[in-house]
Predict the 3D structure of the following.
Amino acid sequence: MIGIDPHKGSHTAHALDAREHPLGQVRVPAAPDQVEVLLGWAARWRQRTWAIEGARGLGQLLSQQLISAGERVVDVPPKLAARVRLLNTGQVNKNDPNDARSVAVAALRAQNLPELAAEDQTMVMRIWARRYHDLGRLRTQLLCRLHTVLCELVPGGFAKELTAGHATDLLNEVSAQSPVIQAKVELAWDLVTDLQRIDTQRRDARRRTAAAVAASGTSITEIRGIGPIIAGAVLGYVRDINRFADRDRFASYNGTAPIEVSSGNRKIYRLSRRGNRQLNHAIHMAAVSQIRYRGTEGRAYYDKKLAEGMTGKSALRALKRKISDALYARMVDDARRLTGRDPGGQSGNDSASSATGFHPETPALGTSHSRASANPRTTTSTVPRPQPAPASRRTGRSAAGVKMQPRQRPRSGRRQERS
């Protein structure tokens, strides 16, 4: 096992045997011949596996080069390597050789680390979907600046949704009566030009994303609220659906599954902030699109959860979990159809999904996940169970249930008599 701690300027490799005995280490500069140098150094070990920390981040280029050379590469999360270094019996200092050794130890001890594969069409969708999202953020920032300038030129600004055409019509009616107004008008024209350029780039990014999604032959675009941009983001970040054993693992990865924080006999779940947040945002946009239109299955499911006593945010989270299950079922069916074989390991999968994918019949999120019993919204909700009072406000009771007298505190300045 060869652990690698990648950096922008250099990469440090540390080799271990099956018993975690050190075999050697090397430091190579990040250069065009970095792979040749590493392979020449590791040629003495014929059966080898490369463990790269953050192989989908800073070490992505190196990992893809090793895969192209026919090597086996696994991805080690940075947190896992940090825990190995922290829990080491010896006090290991924080440096590149020790970090590379921690990566190798983590890869030897951990189970089911993801093995990387060569980048395929899904990476193309991810690139253009991310480009579209970044251009959207730049467009929003540019519109805010343009609206600020227009408010200084036109009384009341512009109340409707601002576009390049509307800004052009307003600027044509403004007369420059002073050098200051003339400068503001010129600035506004420059912003309008930038806005037109970004709009053109967004249309081009959307066209490229739609072409990549259509070429993949996916069926997730049949789910309401999932267009080419959201589909490109989902497929780009998921890549291979076979790495998720069931729909629950997939929901945990995208952050739509609640986190259990129970203690003793109390079962409590809270909102998950873990997982891939870009993928969670894509599912969130699909859920909002379904809620927007009445008469759809998504809106019906949302209203049903509200009637059961859930809050609006909790009902939205329940719908997001349903969409996650629908995405999982669709992608599993697509993988089976394209490869002609069962992906395997898909326990709990239900391929019978509707347009919104409301399956299985049992709800994905219960009322306990949103604490709906403590926040009833309608009269049809269940009666909340009484909760014990906090320790600071609870009166003392004996084991038999007899109420005991609270303990009296002595007043300051008064002597206590003893019997």
Observations:
- Residues 345-419 have pLDDT under 50 and may be disordered.
- The chain is about 45% helix and 10% strand.
- Residues 207 and 228 are 9 Å apart (CA to CA).
